[in-house]
Amino acid sequence: MKPSEDQFDAALVRALQQDGRASIQTLADELEASRAQVSSRLRRLLDDGTVRVVAAVDPGFLGHSILTHNMLRVSGSTEHVTEQLRARDETVFVSAVSGADHVVFETRFGSTDAMLELLQWVRSLEGVERVSTTTYIRIVRGFFVANYRGDYEPDDIDRKLITLLEGDGRRSYT
User: Fold this and answer.
1) Domain made up of 59-135: CATH architecture
2) Domain boundaries, the chain
3) Whole-angstrom Cα distance, residue 12 to residue 48?
4) What pLDDT was estimated at residue 82?
5) Is the pLDDT reported for residue 45 higher than 70?
6) C-alpha pair distances (Å), 45 with each of 110, 125, 172
7) Do 38 and 16 contact (CB within 8 A), yes or no?
8) Tens-digit pLDDT profile for residues 145-164
9) Contact 3, 10 (CB under 8 A)
10) Which of 4-8, 60-64, 144-148 has the lowest mean pLDDT?
11) Mean pLDDT within 86-99
12) Under 8 Å between Cβ of 83 and 45
């Protein structure tokens, strides 16, 4: 029985999660589908924004040894605060939430001083009433965690490649 379009998409996404840079032919072989079918469906998913294939870089590789989960209580609209946080390089996740707190965001830092500087800035934002910060001690599971153990120091070319791949993980090697 031929899978539905939704089933095919789900299988394609699972394959990309295993190897986001797999060739169309490799994906077609794995999904037992034609190259044309995989190419067409992948292009549609990428073009309409349903799927993004991006590099997930282990924070330690970039010198980010301090990772935090932060919750904010905000008076009034959260839009101003979330937009300000979104614009910061240190923030990797920003969300308006329901409950006692109104905004949740996650950050990565190379030093305690950098973390404290950002938290001081957050406290100064209009409408922020309370900041609650938790520092991760050890990440057991996360899509951005790899097996990096600090045995390689990235250079300028590595950092440029990472930036490009964070925008488009299927970008051509050329």
Assistant:
1) 2-Layer Sandwich (3.30)
2) 5-47, 59-135
3) 15
4) 97
5) yes
6) 35, 38, 18
7) no
8) 666 566 677 788 888 888 88
9) no
10) 144-148
11) 92
12) no
Question: For residues 71 and 92, what is the distance between their CA atoms, to the nearest angstrom?
Answer: 14
- Closest of 44, 56, 50 to residue 17, by C-alpha: 56
What pLDDT does residue 4 have?
A: 86
- Average pLDDT in the chain: 87
Handedness of CA 37, 41, 44, 47 (dihedral sign): negative
Q: Three-state secondary structure along the chain?
A: CCCCHHHHHHHHHHHHHHCCCCCHHHHHHHHCCCHHHHHHHHHHHHHCCCCCCCCCCCHHHHCCCEEEEEEEEECCCCHHHHHHHHCCCCEEEEEECCCCCCEEEEEEECCHHHHHHHHHHHHHCCCEEEEEEEECCCCCCCCCCCCCCCCCCCCHHHHHHHHHHHHCCCCCCC
Residues contacting 50, CB < 8 A, separation 6+: 9, 44
- 123, two tokens: 């406290």
What pLDDT is recorded for position 143? 64
* CATH classification number, 5-47, choose in 1.10.10, 1.25.10, 3.40.395, 3.30.310: 1.10.10
